[in-house]
Amino acid sequence: MNNRICLNDLVERCAQSPHLPAYESGGWGLSYGQLLTRARVLAAALGQLWPGEGPILLYGHKQPALPVGMLACLLAGRAYVPCDEGWPAARVETVFRQAGAAALLFADEAPAPWPEELPTAPLWPMCEPGIIEPLAAPRPCSPEQTAYILFSSGSTGRPKGIPVPRRALANFARWITARPALTLAPGETVVGQAGFSFDLSLTDLTLAFCGQGRLVSLSREELADPALLFRQLSASGAAVLVCTPTFLELCLCDKNFSPALMPKLRAVFCCGEVLPRPAAEKFLSRFPGAALLNAYGPTEAACAVCAVNAADALATFADGPLPVGLVEQAAVEIAALGPKGELLAEGEPGELALRGESVFSGYLPGSGDARFSGGWYRTGDSGFVKGGHVWCTGRLDDQLKYCGWRIEPGEVEAALHALPGVERAAVLPQRSPDGRVRRLCAFLQAAQSARLPEEEVRRLLAQRLPAYMLPGRLFWLDELPVTENGKCDRAQLAREFLL
Amino acid sequence: MQLTDDMILSLIANACGTPRALEEGMDLIESGLMDSLARITLFEGLEDLGVELSPTQLAPDALRSAPAILAAVHAAL
């Protein structure tokens, strides 16, 4: 493992190759020289305009101003909070207040409607060289200081704030850049699919910036249009692709996704959800010379903590789900724990638990309590460890994974319950035969006369929830079924409506 | 086995997870029914039926409705 990387080294690495391209998205780009110069200017401006340690919200999608903002926050010792411009303004405001943020910096436009009393500023002019003396050196920081805060869906009905310390980010950087197939040479390209509010994007950012490589981050338009996407994949000349398994499967639906399209591709890093065995087999037969890494890790442990070479796994395990990592080469210690926190024997199913530098210290106040047991962080993921491999088999709670996104049904139910006329609400997943979540289904209890048109329900929900959390199907019921304990009988709903 | 429109429509409904996908005027994109996983199920199902449809070759609205998908499949045969 490369032990030399720390976050301040990252700045030195960026400075080594000022002429090389650092970041491109949507036709706009930055060299390392531009990235670092602008980040230093912005870091100085942050200290002058909003002194103190309050986190900075970075609002946008993949505009080049966003990585400038992230690097500036790391230089200035401020936590950054990525907020996607696809989020409704109400959610961004909730996140702003929960994070105790000092300011919101936006790439294109501020979220609307946005309360006037909350400070905002455009990212781009604020990092323009010449407006202020750039920050000369990174501000000294403790390893425990928060590097960034990601917000995921929360079971309490509000977004869950996950602060990740600088030591965890540095440990992730050490681990990911030590994967031989992923390491970039200066000038080589990594393509990233995920937006910055999804921590998978840390992988492509880290691989690029630690290796003085070029990150091509796919724009919303490219992701929505297969023809445009394939033109960009081809033009990128990428050596590495970082994506969710769903994205990889979508690409594989087209026979043109092949070495002829991406002749330099040598590795794909998949994380965020289950990589189906057939998808791995299809990719490896299509790209026989490339490595496919199947990775695992919760946001609470800085993106990913372990990975396995899918070709090796397919050869070792003739059938069944693929493992998600190797214990020996993990960024942290990994074990399966029993209900009382006891370490389980080889192959015994339990709860996956993590211990080490990558693991966070707890959620933001009001976001619930993290579950620690004897120094182990209990992930809530079910799984087991066998023969040095880690398997993740699902969740022990209600949390759902949809195309890589974490969704707590409780947060969607809270938004549904706030709709006019809704007396009770329940949200259940509709699953495909292989167990993956196809969509959310909402069950609403309301009097006939109080039922809103479906379009109106969707419009009101979209004011509170990001698109990936919106239910795909709505069922109005006179009464939700209840169990003997008076709780919603989810099993009956599933039997009656979803099977 | 002869490929019929009913087989394709059944595949569309299965991919979208609901027979509502076949309703007249249903916009599969706007309604969210034709999401990423639906696309994967549809294209893989068509491949199993011997229809090779390349997403990159399709018109932007080819997946917007069941009749549009049927037309794209017919054009590919």
Automatic annotation (TrEMBL), chain A:
<dbReference type="InterPro" id="IPR045851">
    <property type="entry name" value="AMP-bd_C_sf"/>
</dbReference>
<dbReference type="InterPro" id="IPR000873">
    <property type="entry name" value="AMP-dep_synth/lig_dom"/>
</dbReference>
<dbReference type="InterPro" id="IPR042099">
    <property type="entry name" value="ANL_N_sf"/>
</dbReference>
<dbReference type="InterPro" id="IPR025110">
    <property type="entry name" value="AMP-bd_C"/>
</dbReference>
<dbReference type="Pfam" id="PF13193">
    <property type="entry name" value="AMP-binding_C"/>
</dbReference>
<feature type="domain" description="AMP-binding enzyme C-terminal">
    <location>
        <begin position="411"/>
        <end position="487"/>
    </location>
</feature>
<dbReference type="GO" id="GO:0016874">
    <property type="term" value="F:ligase activity"/>
</dbReference>
<feature type="domain" description="AMP-dependent synthetase/ligase">
    <location>
        <begin position="12"/>
        <end position="364"/>
    </location>
</feature>
<dbReference type="GO" id="GO:0031177">
    <property type="term" value="F:phosphopantetheine binding"/>
</dbReference>
<protein>
    <submittedName>
        <fullName>D-alanine--poly(Phosphoribitol) ligase subunit 1</fullName>
    </submittedName>
</protein>
<keyword id="KW-0436">Ligase</keyword>
<dbReference type="GO" id="GO:0005737">
    <property type="term" value="C:cytoplasm"/>
</dbReference>
<dbReference type="InterPro" id="IPR020845">
    <property type="entry name" value="AMP-binding_CS"/>
</dbReference>
<dbReference type="GO" id="GO:0043041">
    <property type="term" value="P:amino acid activation for nonribosomal peptide biosynthetic process"/>
</dbReference>
<dbReference type="GO" id="GO:0044550">
    <property type="term" value="P:secondary metabolite biosynthetic process"/>
</dbReference>
<dbReference type="Pfam" id="PF00501">
    <property type="entry name" value="AMP-binding"/>
</dbReference>
Automatic annotation (TrEMBL), chain B:
<dbReference type="InterPro" id="IPR036736">
    <property type="entry name" value="ACP-like_sf"/>
</dbReference>
<protein>
    <recommendedName>
        <fullName>Phosphopantetheine binding protein</fullName>
    </recommendedName>
</protein>
